[in-house]
Design goal:
The structure is a homodimer of 246-residue chains.
Chain A lengths: L15 H14 L12 H8 L3 H13 L3 E4 L3 E4 L7 E3 L7 H26 L2 H19 L6 H18 L3 H17 L1 H11 L3 H15 L3 H21 L5
Helix pairs in contact in A: 1-3, 2-3, 4-6, 4-7, 4-9, 4-10, 5-6, 5-9, 6-7, 9-10
The structure holds a DNA duplex (30 and 30 nucleotides).
Chain lengths: 246, 246
Amino acid sequence: MSTTGLFDRIDRPRRLPDEVASSILASIESKQLNPGDKLPSENELSKQFGVARTVIREAISLLKFDGVVDSRRGVGAFIAQSEHRSAFRISPACFEIRKQIVQLLQLRTGVQAGASALAAEMRTSKQMAEIESVYERLALADKTGPAEALEERVDTELLFYRLITQASSNRYYEDVVGMIESNLQTNLRSAFLKNAATSEFGPNILAEHHAVLTALQAKDVEGARVATRLRFEHSARSLASRKDFA
Amino acid sequence: MSTTGLFDRIDRPRRLPDEVASSILASIESKQLNPGDKLPSENELSKQFGVARTVIREAISLLKFDGVVDSRRGVGAFIAQSEHRSAFRISPACFEIRKQIVQLLQLRTGVQAGASALAAEMRTSKQMAEIESVYERLALADKTGPAEALEERVDTELLFYRLITQASSNRYYEDVVGMIESNLQTNLRSAFLKNAATSEFGPNILAEHHAVLTALQAKDVEGARVATRLRFEHSARSLASRKDFA
DNA sequence: ACATTTACAGTTGTCAGACAACTGACTATA
DNA sequence: TATAGTCAGTTGTCTGACAACTGTAAATGT
């Protein structure tokens, strides 16, 4: 977004309910709390964590919303079966950034390939025109050389595939892709940019994008699927082979 | 899990914070509130909704957790850019059950195909043995005819692909597949079963599963990808062609 | 002795009010 | 004009209270 400032913002005191929720989640992940177990009462948790009950309530409310715990008035709150979770969120709990980004790109590959295939079938002419225009921008940026306006170029590429996803007319695809993308942008942007600077641009990369574009134009479902997959597999592999990020 | 009871559970009085959160979300979906807009203050919302501020706080806390709104102390709460959402949840807000299930199956197809491909590469012998054993159960159930123990059969099939997903060694794939699956099980189980009763079983279906199994055994990445995709596309199409569910 | 009802302690859900921490804008002052 | 101080408004947290509900145990009737 803005230029990278001289100082990173200091770690402002995180909000208490998030801390509590994370703490409880960690206890679940580490099998200290198992499905079916009863959580301590809110009053007791309040004492244990040393915060007010309202904070505990907000924390548990978050977990309930995701289906991680289930509470019954007059009884208590219980750890839910892990299959009942109603939300998918990319937890920043994974400390191995490297592993995380590789797995995330693997997921993105599968999802985006499906979205592109669907888009090849469902796209309207208007959507196709937009996608073509963004591709033109991408090709133009590629000619000017990689040293300049790197961020904007990466954003253009992201936009390219976001538009394709939208053309699939499937909200779930949009949501999943959007979430993965936003996570890559925020948490892993620096690593992403570093990688992009060295290997993400060039005629062969552009050719991969072009293959996707051509398939979409021809409404070639399988072609779009394969081309998209190859493009992201390539990206994932180039990133995985690097030893020097984050 | 358990057998389908005679009575569906009545709609228990939903909790207030969820109501409020849904209401605010609806305002966002309907473009009455747009990204960047400032929410009314908690005190004002408290008066408008006629509930205590703690309820409003919990509701906003949920939205913050999903990245839908962003609040700053001393300033207020604002609608976030839609790209910043940190969670993917299958919202029950889509009233067209038919459309919802089709789109969900489309997503599942893409995701599961990717997971299977990854599993073909990453699986251990032990995981392969488990998958084979579940397949045997599936084949056995198929011989006894479709009239009996339908639920268990469907669950076995779900387990088959859940194990495959686990074999991918990618937590994100597991999470996404698990969430889609749980949603299908809970919200759309009846429609699912009805479809399964008529068209989900038989030698050709089993052959599709078998193709997936064979590819996994041979560590054939592309074979696993294609076989899985065909199997789910088939399932989605047979469901979409039916006019009589839900 | 057994079955039914009642009372009770414990828990979650909601409410009301207060203060702390922080922000943005306004005002006073040099 | 520029700087510092003041202040109202907002979110974050705390405290205490009551309502709604549940499971258990005691009390009661048979």
